[in-house]
Amino acid sequence: MNMELDRIRDAARVLKARIIRTPLVYSPTLSDLFGADVYLKLENLQKTGSFKVRGATYKILKNRDKLGPRGVVAASAGNHAQGVALAARQAGVPAVIVMPVWASITKQIATRNYGGDVILHGTSLSESLDKALELSREGRTFIHPFDDEDIMAGQGTVGLEILEDLPDPDLVLVPVGGGGLIGGIGTAIKALRPRTQVVGVEAAVCPSANEALRTGRLVAVGSAQSIADGIAVKRLGEKTFEVIRRRVDRVVTVDEEHIAEALLLLLERKKVLAEGAGAVPLGALLTGAVRCEKGRKVVLVVSGGNVDSPLLGRVLTKGLLKSGRLMRFTVQVDDVPGSLARLLGVVAAHGANVLHIYHDRNVPDLPLHVTRVELEVETRGFDHMEALTEALKTAGYQLVP
Q1: pLDDT digits (tens, 9 = 90+) for 367-377
Q2: What domains does the chain contain, in order, with CATH numbers?
Q3: What is the Cα–Cα distance from 318 to 314, expressed in whole angstroms?
Q4: Contacting residues for 205 by C-beta, under 8 A, at least 6 apart
Q5: What processes does the entry annotate via GO biological process terms (predicted)?
């Protein structure tokens, strides 16, 4: 008897009708791009916008009679906070969520709206965690974000659903942060279809899983800011590490540029809004860190869609610049009537769409009769950018560095 699989099946029973059974969607676009049959498991459509509600709900409901007299407490800057808050409300128990002071206002509001009592404490997540553990000693049950068998079992229901919809996947790519999601999915899939490869994907700026697997022990890694902040976890959990060693074939990393590219590709071509952590499986295909063979069935787990609007704007702009879809340039023109119109005429004649113009006469080193014009235009790619640049030079404009 496989006790781990039994726990995941019990989680599926408990969670039935309490969460959304998210779709597994075939993508013709991505399949053509990578030469394999590519499917997306859309956990960004889950309640609270993330898979996290699965584990939190199972943990709280399974242990409803054992919870502290004052409910539950958790520490999180985002998805776990919202998952625990909603799970506690559905179970009818109070929840205190400790969030670092820099947690986004959007996520603070969402957590409160799901019923959580939000306390802002600490300049780091570890300080928020210390505060949550302190509060747990006052009669609240601490809900760990990943290093817990019940949490992993709840997340493992994602793996069961994948196999119910696609019984024979060859490869499943899963984001890795603390390891709860891939631990659960890997356990479910390897128990039911051992031939399927389960590959983890983490942000290159925070490679805690890679370092743990390389050294054979848990290590804390440094972490820079990442678009995939949801998986920027500096150290795996003890329980999740043991499961990953047994159930996961390998873990790869993706750099920030390819995470942004993946996010943009999902949004533009599939109309799927993914947060950075949810886009890393596609990023692994874009970098070539994971290669697909023709005819293989590949599942990308889009783990969540909770991306802040300001960050989304920056990511999209960076992605457009990187792909040659956005061009910015500066020229100097005579400050006489018609000069700007002539410049815009060259841009229009070559099919570029003007997005922003900044017209500056007050540049210290410019003659009085000259003005500087900065333009941001939408282009079709690098060939189009090159053609526009040549047209501007032919028309007599010198692009200013």
Answers
A1: 888 899 999 99
A2: 3-50+154-319 (3.40.50.1100), 57-142 (3.40.50.1100), 325-400 (3.30.70.260)
A3: 6
A4: 223, 224, 225, 226, 232, 255, 256
A5: isoleucine biosynthetic process; L-serine catabolic process; L-threonine catabolic process
